[in-house]
Amino acid sequence: MLLMLAIALLSIAAICSRLGILGWILNGLSLHIRDAPQVGGKKPFPSGPRAWPIIGHLHLLAKRPHQIIRDLSGKYGPVVGLQLGKLRAIAVCTPATAKEVLFTHDKIFANRPYFQVNEQFLYGRDTSVVFTSLCPAWRRNRKICTIALVTPRRMQQLEHIRSEEVSFLLREIYEESQGGRKSVELGRYVQLMTARLTLRMINSEARFVPGIEGLLEMIKEVEHEFSSPLIGDFIPALSFLDVWKKIRVRRIHRRMDSILSALIVKRKQAMLNSSSSSFDDLLEVLLSKEANQNGCAGSAAVEDALTVEEMKAILLVILPSAY
């Protein structure tokens, strides 16, 4: 009996550990997880297959979840109801319903599920952009990232960085190919260029910071841990199976935190020693909004002020796009 119970628990652990694919779908167009509140107790939850006790439909998503959801949509319609452990989910399976969810009624679905890994990495709840529910902090962080990174004016200001990195890329390829006489793996060089470009938009000194290659490797580790939620997020009774992953997450977070802290301290010192701002990057924008002891960021409004932890959380969300 005990042996059968142990085998069952290990099977569930294996299923949940393979939710790395599902982790990406959660942030994409097809699946929106929410806690299971009853909306006025009036409208029924969308229909779906019969759920197993405790694990719900987790066993269906262990392999090729996109194909499983496609097959379910053919039987249950464009919106399929799923039970993922203690969490309820809906799978939106057609472009029309995806538009309804993500565009027409986006505010209704704007909240994010609570995952322990996110809180551990991102210094608590509602501190970053991607995993923050719809609230004033989310609007503030989105505004900061938009102004600092993706406005047309900002794109024009950063044109010299893009030109430099493309020139550097072409020079690297030319040297590695020995003047075009040797084949090279182009994808790897484009990936490195994208990483350098993103890092320089965050920190204009990135190319000259020692150990920046190690930072890129650590970003890969962070992405790996982000991609698979803890088993306890879905089945709290099995939280004891997450012990080693929690230890691993804390270790990676401490290393990442030390790198970001050193980056911020170095920039603060450089800004104090410089009579005029000369960095023009996201890090400078964040530090210009740093909250003082009164909770204000200089002349900025209280609601625009950022703590150091909130700055790190924003950087941690943007950094994975560099790899």
Q: Which of globular, elongated, flat, extended, rod-shaped describes the shape?
A: globular
Strand content: under 5%
What is the structural class? mainly alpha
Major sheet characteristics: 3 strands, antiparallel
Query: What's the helical proportion of residues?
Result: 40-55%
Task: Indicate the mean pLDDT.
Answer: 77
Radius of gyration: 23 Å
What is the spatial order of strands in the main beta sheet? Answer: 1-3-2
| Strand runs, count | 3
Q: Tell me the series of helices and strands, N- to C-terminal.
A: HHEHEEHHHHHHHHHHH
How would you explain this protein's 3D organization?
- The protein has 323 residues and is mostly helical.
- It has helices at 2-17, 20-26, 65-76, 95-104, 116-121, 136-150, 152-157, 159-176, 186-202, 212-226, 231-234, 243-273, 282-287, 308-318, and strands at residues 31-34, 79-84, 87-92.
- The chain has a 3-stranded antiparallel sheet.
- The longest helix is centred in the last third of the chain and has 31 residues, at 243-273.
- The radius of gyration is 23 Å and the shape is globular.
- Residues 1-39 have low confidence and may be disordered.
Provide a compact summary of the structure.
GO terms for molecular function: heme binding; iron ion binding; monooxygenase activity; oxidoreductase activity, acting on paired donors, with incorporation or reduction of molecular oxygen. α8 runs antiparallel to α9 (186-202) and α10 runs antiparallel to α12.
